[in-house]
């Protein structure tokens, strides 16, 4: 009830006593009580009905809108002879006693006079319990909400010293319940406060120093380690594992051990208590300040003796090493949190094995223990060696790829490209596709709208050569996994344009002499090495040339970068020794160590740098110190440099690596034809690349532009959505600025590739926090999507449907914006608009009721009743608008999703899903690939390839924090899928090849097995207007068949290009669009 707070028990007793006292002693004040009086209802419920039996028992009579108090006979003689007066007098005395028994804090603020003599002291005297210390501050103590006094066997007015004594006696006779008694003692101290609390707290701290604890302390101890006290599944191993994880990550060792000991003692576990106690207890007890020294002594002795028992004793405090337990397993794999998912455990295991292969058996044992503890068949299936051999037929199952160092997304890419049948066949038979490098072919070579250099082509051909070796191993290896080469990883992860800069940076960093610091920006070098002899056959002027290089050491890195970039454009007339000049070790601290040879040669020919005259030897260098002789520089380690480059490449964006693979593949092979703009057309372009047309509608007219693309970029930054809504965002109309006006822009697909790649842009930027973050909003995938709606066409029916859909989406955005306003999404108070109006109305009503109370009437505020009713109307209006908007949004979403439901001619099937688990800065990658022939999804997780048992793992929205999310999707043309993809291609060799055979496999494909080329001669994907002919009904979903090579579907008009099975631009262009 507005304006009336919840009454305390003493208020109810006082009000009832007043009603009865007036009825008995002051009939003039005893008036009828309104049943809807707020003060009356706050004490006795709505209209007094909850207390109806009590009131009628006391003589009250209920009328229609009021209660009539008891009416005793006013003329009855005194002392009372009227039974009702006697009864009411008894009630008053009983109420007075109940009021007197209320706690002191509750009685504060009430003028109470004791009207009776308590018999308590006489009763205590009779029972022989009156002689105990009394508390002097009894009236200030808070009332206990739990029976803490009773549990401890004391009374509330007992002195704190007596209560402490009672606690000690209880603990001595009933030690099993010490935690309960200590909890009661602590609670009593808190309730008393002041000096009494100080007396009790002294006893509490003494108890803690003796190792005692309360029940609440045990619960807090579990929470300290991130565990739940009520979880019956927690074992001693779980707890000890958590303890060691915390111990290695905190400097509060004493607190951590204390918390563990409490858990162990409460569970009655000697093993947990042993782990909590010091392993070098005797030495520490002798000299507590020598704890670190004692621990170090035990460690040194254990290492000197190579004693496993001492090492185990040092780590755990136990005298026997025994078998590895689950806690040891987690600790060995460096997993501090046992609640992590299977993917994180697998990633930790993989890293440990990669860093210490000789300890693989021990890591396998640890993983098996964790798998058993979690009852995880998935983790059990990952265990390699004797603990977990697969019973699968390797000739019918794909091989895994060993992680060679933080490159798990590389393995996902390699698995994907291997499964693409035409691409795999091209790689395996690379010699048939390899481009011949001549001046003529170089002059015509254009990939990605730019000319390609000879060096890029040679590098790309090395890349496909390395890829062919891997694919060969993936086909023929009898093992369950193979290892990609470091050189393949480098060529895959690092693009040709980035390779020079990375190589230059690593070379300069590795070979530059170590300095001793700087003075005024000049390096301070260490002592000179031994003098270097100059070869007798060194040409005259070589010493001067060396001095010249030193003099030029102040040239900036920018010049070097420019030189590197332009190096590829120079002719190849220089000697082979200088073709890769950036790999030469620099002299002294020369920054220009990677400069090309041409400048050096020009300087040498004249004996002086450009712009000077006369011999270099006679040119004085004023105000400069003499040149520093060159130091001997050790040759760079090729293996180390290769590894460093792979690690740098692994930091590249995944989509950059995908583009690098496709670019190099095109650079390495010869073209099938050339487009009018000179762009190379080939198998890679036909498989993975499409064309999109962008239209701009402005007041000047309609403009269009066509561009190549290899993936569609979609966004899930703001909310979860399905795959159609995500793709819509790439092609829907939007407002753009064109000059001084605003125009409309939208896109459409003019040529769709048979392998459709979709990039999910997960990494977003938070402008408020000024940092990147990963969006984990769910993307609802569909096994089949229909791309008809996105194709470029001028058919009025399609164009009109698109425009209608755009209008619906515009309305939908407006409704969602209004809905967010009504829900106050940007406000943190938790109120939507209906609740806000309602809350304001309640506040005004509370203020208005202040005038009904004697205590607050003076501060009351006059409130216009119309304001309150107006707020109620606003609340109802906002609630009604929200309901209407929700219904409109639902209707619009239904219309949008069904707008193109009958356009089902251009079907694409989901084939591959790349997954990332982690954050922006780190994480783990794997891929799911669907096998259409066997109708199964497989999970490719580095060296482990497993069958997916529950597809919700891929498609369901995982309702948890930071779930694994798809970041790259691949759909394939449904009519062509059997010719496009083939995940399982194995021709396992019975015996491992010899070294000579292995070497031969890197240069020839004869050992690969039967050729699959006949499966690869596939027809091109149908053009949009081929499967949707103008003569038919648009969007009817009729079945159209792609012609097999040499065959024509019944009733088809003679399309010679389609029958021939060759890729032609004509088929993939749209007939009714003007380019």
TrEMBL record:
The EC number(s) this enzyme carries: 3.4.19.12
Residues of the USP domain: 399-974
GO molecular function, one term: cysteine-type deubiquitinase activity
Catalytic activity: Thiol-dependent hydrolysis of ester, thioester, amide, peptide and isopeptide bonds formed by the C-terminal Gly of ubiquitin (a 76-residue protein attached to proteins as an intracellular targeting signal)
PROSITE patterns: USP_1 (PS00972), USP_2 (PS00973), USP_3 (PS50235)
Domain of life the protein comes from: Eukaryota
Signal peptide location: none
Protein name per the record: ubiquitinyl hydrolase 1
